[in-house]
Task: structure prediction
Amino acid sequence: MLAPLLSDSQLLILLSMATITFSSLQASPSLHCLSLNSPKNTPTLSFYSHSKPFPSISLKPFNTTLKFKPRSLIISAAFKTFSETESITVPLTEEEFNSKMPSDCGVYAVFDKSNDLQFIGVTRNIGASVFSHLKSLPELCHSVKVGVVDDPDKASLTEAWKSWMEEHIKTTGKVPPGNETGNATWIRQPPKKKADLRLTPGRHVQLTVPLEDLIDRLVKENKVVAFIKGSRSAPMCGFSQRVVGILESEGVDYESVDVLDEEYNYGLRETLKKYSNWPTFPQIFMHGELVGGCDILTSMHEKGELAGHLKK
Ligand SMILES: *[C@@H]1O[C@H](CO)[C@@H](O)[C@H](O)[C@H]1NC(C)=O
Ligand SMILES: *[C@@H]1O[C@H](CO)[C@@H](O)[C@H](O)[C@H]1NC(C)=O
Ligand SMILES: *[C@@H]1O[C@H](CO)[C@@H](O)[C@H](O)[C@H]1NC(C)=O
Result:
């Protein structure tokens, strides 16, 4: 009866659930440890985690030196189950937010005003994720449950997310609507990067205007142009990388030109050096004028002058 609702990955979750016996949903799901210090002094430590079969380590009696520490065990033991976790109303101001929401790795579940679960997410920064949901989907973010995962490795995060998901599916028979396959409401799409601009149609096409004029037109027709080494999606030097990073972190709508592109920007490096009278790359132009290279842009960014300069 669940099948039509479920994708492959959800089925996998259900399948893996089938091998797990929840003795009680309230109990910490993963750790069943028969302590060596218990009166029975049982020599066997057995444990299971959600994704793995149930290994068991046999220890010689009275030898308490473990050969290894199963890491996910420790996390799961500290990590609260979905139902154990109390939900909190999403704070509305940024200050309140920062004081109430952890900026740690973990999982979170978002509920709407009717207290219906909308989405269970996993993140490297709970506060930042919930905050971005709140900004983009205020009507769906009424309260949240958050679970910090102390060990920030990917496997423990996935494990934690799966445990909440499984618990919810187990109790309701449903996947949260926001986690249904194909629902892009909650998962931020990486912004599509613009393509780099090319100065010429190709190296072997005879230019009818001098390259210098093409550069001139390009920097005057576009508010911000960064001549960088490599493309904006894969800068080829640290300085270019930093330039792209700064422009993107400030949300600047800019054009980029790859000065290393010998096919479409052939001869650009030499011509641009003369045009701008600046010997190195990257070079950033704003409103048709050279601003400078990476250092100058970095300093403008640090002093908070970039936005003002762009408005001019
Ligand atoms: C206990 O186990 C450790 C690791 O397996 C081993 O190196 C050590 O010799 C053992 N000690 C005793 C008393 O058996
Ligand atoms: C995606 O999930 C949200 C709930 O968070 C729901 O309101 C919306 O209708 C869903 N969209 C689709 C296309 O299923
Ligand atoms: C649910 O949300 C998680 C976390 O963002 C996402 O990775 C997953 O694809 C979503 N859907 C399903 C079916 O798990």
Summary: Residues 7, 9-10, 121-122, 175, 179, 181, 187 surround 2-acetamido-2-deoxy-beta-D-glucopyranose (ligand 3) (CB under 6 Å). The longest helix spans residues 154-172.
